[in-house]
Amino acid sequence: MTVKHNILVVEDERDIAQLIRLHLQDLGCSVTLAHDGIVGLSEAESKPFDLIILDLMLPGLGGLDICRRLRGRAQYTPILMLTSKSSELDRVLGLELGADDYLTKPFSVMELLARVKALFRRMGEFSAGNSTNQIPGRIHIGDITLDSEQRVVTVRGRESQLTAKEFDLLSHFAQNPSRVFTREQLLNAVWGYSYAGYDHTVNSHINRLRGKIEANPDQPEYIHTIWGVGYKFYYADNNGHAQ
Question: Which of 3, 10, 190, 209 could join 40 in a cystine, given CB atoms 3.0 to 4.6 angstroms apart?
């Protein structure tokens, strides 16, 4: 039996909201609409959703503020952010606050549905008890401890505040130590599918992740650049033994 996903769409442009709802319903999803930020936040906090599609520019309360509030809760819900702004700063801000993905308006319905499916695949693999992609409860590598159940990372004994994508990226590396990944492979594994021309997304996330887990980001001990290829996650202790 197919599981019906419950999705909250917070979008003040009613025509766009209705269009999104119609196509998500075609996928078998149950869709709740909210047309301003205050109502959207209230809906998000009133009951669990499998996904929140969140516009950046909203009356009452902006999408970034809603994202910040939701990421302050213990319950984790994927967020796909919509924005009519094209600047890199707006997209990075959303990702820094914990949005899992974003689309810039105008977007195609096919791309929206592809990203929704990708988010569901990733969350399904994370939560499925028999998934080959599920990581152990805890992973210890060097001074880093990664708790997959609580989605918490501690570095040198202190909790590091990672965004959702940064956590997923670090988890993927931790499951595959010493393996070299191209940017395209990381996009496919962490973001759900390849984004043509979005290699800079990987670069920016790697840089921010290094800033949070490395003692000296300019001389990384964990995430190493393999020039001309991509990146690998590798740590050697004081005796030169790999972990």
Answer: 10
- Closest to 119 (Cα-Cα) out of 5, 213, 23, 215: 5
Longest Cα pair distance anywhere in the chain, in angstroms? 62
Residues of the chain with pLDDT under 70: 1-3, 74, 85-93, 95-96, 122-136, 192-199, 237-243
User: What does the pLDDT look like over 152-167, one tens digit per residue?
Assistant: 899 999 998 888 788 8
Domain 138-233 has CATH 3.40.50.2300: no
Q: Is 10 left (phi over 0), alpha (psi -120 to 50) or beta?
A: beta
Q: What fold characterizes domain 6-127?
A: Rossmann fold (3.40.50)
Whole-prediction pTM: 0.62
